[in-house]
Amino acid sequence: MTRFSVVVPAHRVQGYLRECLDSVLTQSFGDLELIVVDDASPDACAAIAGEYAERDGRAQLVRVPARAGAGPARAIGADRATGDYLLFLDGDDLLLPGALAAVDAALRAHRDPDVLLFAHERTDWWENVRAGGDDLTGDPLAATVALWNRVFRRTFWHERRLGFPQGAYEDVVPVQRATLDAGDGVAVLDRACVRWRERRAGSFSKTPGRAHFALAARYEELLAAADPDERTRLFPPAIAHLLAVLEDPGRIREADRRAFFREAARVHRTYAPEGLAPRTPEEKALAAASWGAYEGLRRAETRRVRVARRLKRQKKKLRARAMKAAYRADLRRGLDPALAVYGAYWNRGVSCNPAAIHAKARELAPHIRGVWVVSSRNKHKVPEGVEYVIEGSRSYWRTMARATYLINNSSFPGGFTKRQGQVYLQTHHGTPLKKMGLDQRRYPAGTHGISFQKVLDHTDQWDLSLSANPHSTEVWERVYPSASYQALEAGYPRNDVYFGVDDADVARVRQELGIAEGRKVLLYAPTHRDYQKGFLPRVDLRRFVERLGASYVVLVRAHYFYGADAGLDHHPQLVDVTGHARVEDLCLASDALVTDYSSLMFDYACLDRPIVTYAPDWQAYRLARGTYFDLLSGRPGETPGAVATSEEELAALFTDGGWDSPEAARLRSAFRSRFCPYDDGRAAERVVRRLFLSGAQTS
User: Fold this and answer.
1) Which family does it belong to (predicted)?
2) Residue 654 belongs to some domain of the structure
3) What is the pLDDT of residues 282-313, one digit of tens each?
4) Domain at 83, CATH number
5) How far apart are CA 543 and CA 29, in angstroms?
6) In which domain, by residue range, is 168 found?
7) DSSP 350-369
8) Which of 495, 519, 544 is the last residue of a domain?
């Protein structure tokens, strides 16, 4: 028997339907059937679903001759289903990668419960993705009332005669009734499995009107049929749902708010369990059926918010004035010749080239006091014994005013004034493959509002621009044009760690990562895309490692722009190392690097280990961001090793040995010669001697 029956009602979702159906049919867990019910949609929904049904035997199209509505369309799909479990997915939503595998594992762990509730994500029309916000540790009745954030055992669904009433909010009754009937048979999976789409227009949730009054009727139906214990459980989330809809201008017009309030108050008066006191002032006003009291709360809250915002603005202005006055005073004091201030990745912590320079300065120039700039949310990342200041604080401005040496791989916050006598070393944080600096003007999709005048103003503050190779020197000179700085062609200090390591060092790092002896370790580290929100690997990692076999372990490191973890499903051969403090350790632990366009490839070449380029969206990336050379050309000095442009090709490279072939080694050697000519394990020493021990020309 099929494990999952995914039912998708389709009406006026032609712009989203392909993405929805792809998200189902490309799941790593493939034991499913997909039933698309075309609810007499006037657009191309039926044609799209028909295409999928023709090319994938797991998909089928059911056509409804006249518009029935989302509820009846789902019921038709449920009647056609043969799977163990029903999953209802809207045609404009997405099933997240690995979702069905995670749901199946949870079902088995809970011995196939009647209902499994899971977490979800929300995305708006700007593709801003955020967590669904449900507290899954509480009563399941209080979770988002929807069909798409849970699966139902199919026999349970039919035995309980769960169905859909006509009209709006048709999912409220079957969802809450199933939750009540299942009792302890409701299991929970605290993992986002569905991405719910908030559309700008065209959806019911964004169409205000009296159709939303149906919600009160739905809860009346449920509460009237509930026994006393069920009513006690159901009543609080029902009232909370009604109040939430009341306050949503996308559902209830201002002119209809009083009438909707009366409907909600009637539900409260009729079905409130005896002895259950209102939990909030809003519910207290509802219990009293006092529209005046309710609106008074709203007006008071509006005034409170307005006053709080005004006070916050005033406080911020006063603080800024005080900071500026103190900073101006500090600028009149002399520079501290033994003070250096460091920053990395826009104040994210102690890392990259500045960290390697700081460590070497402690050894070779102990008279230099090093202070790091970090943000308040990243101060926990600062190692013990390392001095730091919080960006924007009084200590920060005092340090910036008096430090003689400034070292950063990005920029310092707040628009500081560089003083005569200060020496600013810009270390950068990678060899450029993608277009940088002024070259980005030709690729506006990736600029995100960059002020190129500010870029040039910042460049004019530099005295030294660290370069890892001649390619970088040439690019930096053109895209950051300024007479203020000199190129410091010393190699990358962060790469020093790759020289002089032995097997014991590798074994130590692997042990810290929990990797068993004898495993082949791959580091999968893709970069971010300007055109992609959130980490979405272009390979099904579970399917990939299972094809490679038990001898492989894949370390997965998402780009730091995407958060502290990669959101992986649990698998013994997958290790999420996104939050690991040192990428250098991950490189040492691995036998090969699998990446796309990340500058990590240039650093990894120092190790002279295989580099596999996995670039399924190369053309899209080149068009959106621009690149300085063709990574996939196969020419020595451009391509670092074996190349794959599809998941099938990637897996074949490792099963057939192409990842470490003589041809791949020849390409790697040429790539290393071009991009690692200065790296020899002593880059940090050269920088420290140049900066702190022999003097530097300043601008």
Assistant:
1) Belongs to the CDP-glycerol glycerophosphotransferase family.
2) yes
3) 899 899 899 988 888 877 767 777 777 788 88
4) 3.90.550.10
5) 9
6) 1-201
7) S-HHHHHHHHHHHHH-TTSE
8) 495
